[in-house]
Every structure is written in structure tokens, then in C-alpha cells.
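Hi U.,

Before I forget, here's the chain from the pilot set. I'm dumping it here mostly so it's searchable later in email.
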Amino acid sequence: QVHLVESGGGLVQAGGSLRLSCAASGSTFSINGMGWYRQAPGKQRELVAGVTGDGITQYADSVKGRFTVYRDNAERALFLQMNSLKPEDTAVYYCAVSMDWSPQDYEYWGQGTQVTVSS
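Structure:
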């Protein structure tokens, strides 16, 4: 079992920056991939950015060049640096992890943190 807690969300003006953090606890030694998803009102949850167990990153096209995802394996933490924020980035952001036995599937999820970008 892995427990994830996100932090760092808030209200920011368009063009501003936020850094989201995700702290993992529990059976963290089996964590493989780590990623950030978001869900805006009335929309489906979408992958924002992820890091595989091998350190390979991927980004949604809408955030490339503005967001940076990175992980601290020693601290079992995941971060998302978000710059040049836009109103359309407004959503609840969720941290998720996959495990060694199923690296392609995000199995554990955090409760989410709200990001609101005002125009």
C-alpha cells in the first residue's frame, strides 16, 4: 500500500508559477513510475506529466515547455514545476504512482490539490 499526499496548489494569476509536491509513504520501495494527472470541471482526467522508473519523462502537449516534472527517489517525492500558467490549467491535480509489478498502470492516487489560474 502506498499513500500519496499532494501540496502546493493554490490561486495564481495567469503567467504565474506554482510548484506541486507529492510525498509518498508506505511500500515505496516498489514504486516504478510517478505522474501528475489533472481534472477540470466537466472534463476527463488527463495525464499532465510523468516519469518512468528509468527516468524517462513525458508531457501532455498542452504543457510542454511550461511544466517540468522531476522526482526525488531518495525522498520518495514527485514535483511539478508549473510556469507561465494559463486559465485553462485550472484543475484538480493528482499525483499517481505505478508499481514494479505493473509499471504501465497507475495504481495509487493522492487526494488531489486544487490549482486555480485567474485571467
